[in-house]
Amino acid sequence: MAASLLAFLLLLVGGMFSTSTPPPGPLEKVFQYIELHQDEFVQTLKEWVAVESNWVQPVPRLRRELHQMAGLAADQLQGLGARLASVDTGFHQLPDGQTLPIPPILLAELGSDPKKPTVCFSGHTDVQPARQEDRWLTDPYTLTEVDGKLYGRGTTDNKGPVLACINAVSAFKALDEGLPVNVKFLIKGMEEARSLALEELVWKEKSGFFSSVDCIVILDNLWISQRKPALIYGTRGNSYFTVEVKCRDQDFHSGTFGGILNESMADLVALLGSLVDKSGCILVPGLYEHVAPVTEEKRMYEAIDLDVGEFRSSSRVKGLLFDTKEELLMHLWRYPSLSIHGIEGAFHEPGAKTVIPGRVIGKFSIRLVPHVDMSVVETQVKQHLEYIFSKRNSSNQMTVSTALGLHPWIANISDHQYLA
Amino acid sequence: MAASLLAFLLLLVGGMFSTSTPPPGPLEKVFQYIELHQDEFVQTLKEWVAVESNWVQPVPRLRRELHQMAGLAADQLQGLGARLASVDTGFHQLPDGQTLPIPPILLAELGSDPKKPTVCFSGHTDVQPARQEDRWLTDPYTLTEVDGKLYGRGTTDNKGPVLACINAVSAFKALDEGLPVNVKFLIKGMEEARSLALEELVWKEKSGFFSSVDCIVILDNLWISQRKPALIYGTRGNSYFTVEVKCRDQDFHSGTFGGILNESMADLVALLGSLVDKSGCILVPGLYEHVAPVTEEKRMYEAIDLDVGEFRSSSRVKGLLFDTKEELLMHLWRYPSLSIHGIEGAFHEPGAKTVIPGRVIGKFSIRLVPHVDMSVVETQVKQHLEYIFSKRNSSNQMTVSTALGLHPWIANISDHQYLA
Known about the structure:
12 helices, alpha+beta, protease (chains A, B), homodimer, signal (chains A, B), 34% helix, 2 domains, Aminopeptidase, Alpha-Beta Plaits
């Protein structure tokens, strides 16, 4: 997987901002260099994977490994001859009051030719925890090759891609081939913690490090399948809703109150059940009205190399809502979808409790696509839930709120960056 | 409240096992005695209420107060001249490994005339915690009189009734009036912890303390309203169900999977939504078939003194499913009811998380009444959910299980115990 990514990123770097095909000579040499040094690249990835750099369980030992990862990445960047700043981002206070230092964010620069565009590669070296119950087939912290694929925590998210990009640049440097762009790196160590301290740094470096950046390539994206990398040119947005139903603040006992109440859970289940049908179709009236009509883009889905059976089995689900590649991709990428996430305030623990919850909060969100307007969706959802609730003649109180709003974005794929 | 209970229990003790009205003389004297000693009785209750004898937060200081309560109750029982055994019931291990002694269970006996029946009064001296967020209007551990009512944690559950019963017996003793029954007391200190250690003791004392007991009066029951005590002659049973819907063991991210899955939450919400309608009517086919037909019992509900408005406001709900006293009582007592308790495996915390839960477990239970057979209900519920699920054509896996089963019981109110 690491080798494929390398090739992918080389194409990206090699071809960027060049409207004509690069001369075959240099790129062929670069590929040869990669073949020759593959074991060395994989060895470095192995060393990176071995560092258990997850922050989720805030055990100080593990936080030290986040700092260790920053050190390893800094070594690689300095090996390229980059000017490197290791930016101290302060401390992070845990809910228990404990204070831990945040690993530094690395800012590296290679080349500052004002005639060349500047590309910034952004990635991270922290990982999600690898738990026993996640059923790993190999040791997550020992990079292991099985059937030509490399397995290990962080191999794809995101140590592998970060190293692949560094290795690509190193190949150009080693061969003394001039890069067609100035390169910058932004390497984070707390991405899985919602990129703690990043926003502050971006504002601080707005007229510094980031002022000369023409485009940012995010190294942390999905592949379209197990064999194909992807160039992402848009993501869906999200409108996150909460719907609270309150009978009273206190819970009831079903033995002494069951049978005479408008139970808040019955109301909430009816409300949540009115949102989406068994085919995944959103039942909120008007919601599909502004979805951008399907254009000749349809041919693009047809051309994409994706095996539905393989996708299903690698997702470990028995069935999907759609059978064809085109329908699957369109429902993942260009149609809105609604997911019910859970309920706050009800009984959620293992075991049995005969509680009638007094006040419950349902949570669901709608993935937004062009040209669905977030504020229109919010109004439609509120009106729909108010209508459903009014039909129940419940004496309870219902409150619909929006918890989070992210607009969808789509880039112009005719833009020179995407053409490159 | 304590005074009313006293009168109630006196009637109970005075009249028990006697088919003719007791001579007016002795009972009038007993009532006079109560009037004269009311302040003293209330003072003792005040002392009991002041002891914060809750076990729920296992703070060792509070456990000491459970033992203190056992001591206070033992003093009162000894004051009656009862033979008292304070039974050591061993230790209780907390989830954190800490071991705490369980407060003793008190077994007291007063009279052993083989010609008289033996009545055992059972109550407890531990309480539920009184938390700030429960919005007490007076200090829970300071017995406070407001408008002729006594407020304080444990005043009704269950310190008040235990003391009222002891006081009733003490009045007979002080007046040298012979009790018509042999009296036993069973006083527990861990009732709110599912009567820890009680079952073991009952088996151990089966042919000892309990062998001569003709009937047990449970002091820990509900009043029908704020003004009326109740003689309980039946309770509904309970069939507790779990319905699991599994897409896969792991959760999904709604950004990368939303729109193409049979989401387990959508299936579960549809299943839970099929159980009960907005009027509280259970939608499981056949469920009402075996419910005992309403007989002349209806006249009993009519005769019961319950103010619906007062009941509603004391329950702190804006509305109830029924407007008349008769409908309310029948739906609380003699019709089945279904409550949805919650969902395990979904997002239940405050805040927003864009998770698509992979595997969720819905929990609901049905209050059972005569002559609904528990195994028939289980079959009906399973068949119903299987039908609803089959209509969804979901590729997920559904499993319905029963977690708990309690049969309903109803006593013969023509029995001499109830007539007394």
